[in-house]
Amino acid sequence: MTITVTVGNYKGGVGKTKNTVMCAYMLAKKGYKTLVVDLDPQANATTVLLRTKKIHSDEIFSFDKTLMAAIKEGDISGIETEIMPNLYLLPSYIDFANYSNFLDLTYGLVDDEDPRYVELTKKKIYHFKELFDSIKEKYDYVLIDVPPTKSYITDSAVIVSKYVTIALQTQELSFDGAVEYLDDLKKLNSTYDANFEIIGVLPVLMDGNASLDNFVLQNAVEYFGEENIFETKIPNMARLKRFDNTGITDYDRHDKKVMELYDAVSDEFLERIAYFEGDSET
Fold first, then answer.
1. Is the pLDDT reported for residue 282 higher than 50?
2. 3-class secondary-structure state, position 182
3. Neighbour tally for 222: CB within 10 Å
4. Which of 205, 206, 188 minimizes the C-alpha distance to 197?
5. pLDDT tens profile 71-85
6. pLDDT of residue 129
7. Among candidates 137, 141, 138, 136, which has minimal Cα distance to 28?
8. Which of 12, 38, 154, 229 gives 20 to 30 Å between its CA and that of 46?
9. What is the pLDDT of residues 166-225, one digit of tens each?
10. Which residues pair with 38 in a beta bridge?
């Protein structure tokens, strides 16, 4: 059974994309057939993974059809691209910014005072699920990268997900974004019949400012509960930033430090999912 996980926060620059692609990379290395779904029109996950693809393959990638074009045609199968063994990408492109407009044109536009508002909104945020269900069973794990704002896109990602991970950079605005995101997840669950579990909050440390890191982490523990905070913390690592330009590499000792870190993160990720799945192994 496919495990689908959205990584989210309503604050940008908190490590959502980096943790999505790195966890997916390590899951693939562990032998799980893994798909990254890039639902962010900025397409940062797509950029990093296509650069990673160049390291593993001489194949030249080109957009025969964008995700937005495929959605308009009603079939997103066949636009996934292989990055390396066990790792695949459903790529985004700038035209995906039109997705919300597409839904409004398809289902109609009403304000929240209209009695049809909930019904029409539900149709909009479930639209992607109908398309996604046709491809997901090919994969063991699907990780979804989303924009850092409330939208039909972020809601649609949660609707297709069995689990959610909240990325939390140790700064106040990131904590506020995580709290806002959690509140919105609760509304999706109660109003639109979303069916997911939150597997945890993954802390991404700032610039080694221990007092700030500890202050925000303590606030997170008090708000989310200590058991819901990942034991593994993501430190500030220059090599992770370099991957944005080079793709994910595994050549030298600096690469290996990153790989060791995300080996631990992905292990804890699997353990937390196994807990909810009621299994000792996932």
1. no
2. helix
3. 9
4. 188
5. 999 999 989 999 999
6. 96
7. 141
8. 229
9. 999 999 999 999 999 999 999 999 999 999 999 999 999 877 668 888 999 999 999 999
10. 145
Q: Are strands 87-90 and 81-84 parallel, antiparallel or unpaired?
A: antiparallel
Which DSSP category does 223 fall into? H
Are 79 and 26 in contact by the 8 Å Cβ rule? The answer is: no
166 to 80, 92, 179, 226: CA distances (angstroms): 25, 21, 10, 14
Which structure tokens are listed for 261?
């870190």
Give the Cα separation of 95 and 179 in Å (integer). Answer: 30
* Residue whose C-alpha is closest to residue 29's, from 267, 273, 202, 235: 267
**173-191 in b/e burial notation, b at 16+ Cβ within 10 A?**
ebbebbbebbebbeebeee
Count of C-beta atoms within a 10 Å radius of residue 94? 11
Cα 156 from chain centroid (whole Å): 12
Backbone angles phi, psi at 55, to 5 degrees: -70, -30
Q: Is the pTM of this model over 0.85?
A: yes
What are the structure tokens assigned to 138, written together?
């090919």
pLDDT, one tens digit per residue, over 243-262 is: 999 999 999 999 999 999 99
* Rounded to 5°, angle at Cα 41 from 107 and 142: 85
| Residue 191 Cα to chain centre, angstroms | 22
Residue written as tokens 């005072």?
A: 113
State both tokens at 132. Answer: 């996604």
